Each structure stands twice: as C-alpha cells, then as structure tokens.
Amino acid sequence: MKRRVSRVFVATTLEQPDVITGYYTLSSLSIEFDQLPEKLARRLPRHPLPAALLGRLGISQDAQGRGIGGLLLADAIKRTLAVSNQIAIYALVVDVSDDDIRGFYEQCGLLPLGSDSRRLFLPLQSF
Fold first, then answer.
1. Could you tell me the sign of the dihedral formed by the alpha carbons of 77, 12, 26, 111, in that order?
2. Minimum mean pLDDT range among 39-43, 79-83, 120-124
3. Which of 11, 32, 95, 123 has a Cα at 20 to 30 A from 42?
4. What is the distance, to the nearest Å, from the Cα of residue 94 to the centroid of all Cα atoms in its chain?
C-alpha cells in the first residue's frame, strides 16, 4: 500500500471489530487482447484492456464456510464498478491457486482468461 500498487480491504464483525474475518486486495492490470475468448474479443479494440486485479482474497479459519468469501468478492466487484464509472475498467481478474478456489470463482461467473489455467476474469459489462 505504501508504494501505491495495491489497496487492502478488511472485513471484521460487529462483535469483534479488532479481529480480521477476511480481506482482499485490489490493484490495476492490463489484459492482453489475445488472452480474451474470441467471442468477446471480436467487439473490442486490439490493444491491452484495463482491468482490476483481485490479488488476494483470504478468510480466517474461524469464518470458513459462512459465505464471507462471496461477500468479499461482491464488495470487490462493487468497488471496481464504482471506479469504472470514473476510469475505464473492462474486467475484474483473479489468479487462482487450486481447484477448490477455481470452483468458487467459476460458480460466481468468472471465466478462463487465455491459456493460463490459473487466471480467471469477469467482464464488467455483465453488470
């Protein structure tokens, strides 16, 4: 955060405001045109597209399975959409580290980005 390359957003509860329940980070990113699915790429300019990167999303062990991840993802989308009203942001991008996490994001509507099986994206035009 000090270097202004990402922002961290933290979730707590009313009962324990000093205990972190979950968090996520957002930063900027460019998506290379050739990484996009052909169906979407046909309607876009042939240059890198602006995006937001959801770099990390973590939930405390005590909060696992309580829907906190979905709430944090929704908050990240909401924040990204708000910024996209001021500057151009085509999509939200996430990097996934394992198949369980991939399944979570795919259930939320994120799509594979390019041939890299660890990167997914959500076009903001769908909102």
1. negative
2. 39-43
3. 95
4. 5
Q: When comparing pLDDT for 38 and 124, which is higher? A: 124
Rounded Cα distance between 114 and 111, Å, is 10
**Annotation: CATH topology of 7-126:** Aminopeptidase (3.40.630)
Residue 47's contacts (CB-CB under 8 Å, 6 or more residues apart) are 33
CB 91 within 8 A of CB 49: yes
| Domain coordinates in residue numbering, the chain | 7-126
Classify residue 44 by its DSSP letter: S
Query: For the segment 18-39, what is each residue's pLDDT rounded down to a tens digit?
Result: 999 999 999 999 998 888 888 8
Q: What's the CA gap between 35 and 33, in Å, rounded? A: 5
Task: Write phi, then psi, for 39 (nearest 5 degrees).
Answer: -60, -40
Tell me the three state secondary structure of residue 60.
coil
Q: Is 122 exposed, middle or buried (0-12, 13-18, 19+ CB in 10 A)?
A: buried
CA distance linking residue 84 with residue 91, whole number of Å: 9
